[in-house]
Every structure is written in C-alpha cells, then in structure tokens.
Amino acid sequence: MSEIQIVDNFLSTEEIDKVLHKSDNFHWKYGHTSIMDGIKFWNCDLKDDEFFTTHIFKKIEKCFKKKFIINRVYANGQTYGLDGSYHIDDADINSYTLLIYVSNITKQNVNSFDGHTLFKKDNKIICVEPIFNRCVLFKSNILHKGMAPSRNTNMLRISIAFK
Fold it and tell me: What are the 10-residue block averages of pLDDT along the chain, 163 residues in total?
C-alpha cells in the first residue's frame, strides 16, 4: 500500500449531505493543537457518532481493502491564521491516518482559498489540496501539517480525521 493515497468523491451524495448537516451541529471546542504549544484551532470529537465510527469506517475499510482499528475520530476546524504544526500522528509503521475534506474548496477556488495538507517525506514537500469530498490516507508516521485557509475566504476549513 502506498504511503499516501488520494481518493476524490469519496463519499456518496447522501453521505456527504449527512456529514454537512452534522457539521452544522458540531460541538466545536477551541484549543486543539498539532504539537505542545502549537497554534490553537477548533476541534470536535466524533468518537460517539456511529455514522462516522461505523458507517464511514466500513466504507474506508472497503475502499482501501484493509482492516483498521479506530483510535480516534474527530473534526478539525481552521480559519485564517490557524495553521497546524508539523507532527506525526503515531510512530508505529503500521498505523494510518485518513482525512476527509468537507469544506467548499474546489478545484476552481483552491488556488485562492488554500488550506492544503503538507507532508515532509525524503527531504521533499508533498502538497495535497483539500478538495471537497476528497480523502487522503497516509502512514501516521509521516511528518505533516494542515494549513489554514487564506485571508481570501472567511470559511472554516474542516477535515474529518480517522486515526
């Protein structure tokens, strides 16, 4: 399995509509960071939401033809200036992280809105655009960070994280 895999249009129309409806009612908490003393951003724990932990999780396993164990499921929310810091999610070489981007960032506006996820691998930066309904699966031990949207938008850049 490749260390970073991208799937566009990951969720069905019904599933993404349900995620968007749920995101309108997320109980956001401010203060989550990528690393100790990092820049704070918004976070919502989803570990008790069966839609994510059962339905979407089964879809992830089916799509990638692999069995996973969920340690955490949550949403990250970033506005302008709330960049994450480079970090790894888990040092275990057998651990994976999956992100689903659910903000209205499209191929047409991504160059203005930004919000990319950056990976540092083999002295190179790999940049993944946070396109709406795109998922990215990667080895949890890859150094990475989520960037905030630019000042060109007042949107909340939301990613759903499965670890």
Answer: 91 97 95 90 96 98 96 97 95 96 97 97 95 98 97 95 97
**Tokens (6 digits) for 17:** 């509509």
∠ Cα 3 124 61 (to 5°): 15
- The SS3 of residue 161 is strand
pTM higher than the cut 0.90? yes
Say if CB 30 and CB 40 are below 8 A apart: yes
What residues pair up with 43 in beta bridges, in sequence order? 29, 76
Q: Cα(59)–Cα(84) distance, rounded to whole angstroms?
A: 27
Hey, what are 50's tokens?
């069966």
Q: Which amino acid is at 11?
A: L
CA–CA separation, 48 and 151 (whole Å) = 33
Q: 3-state class of 59 per DSSP?
A: helix
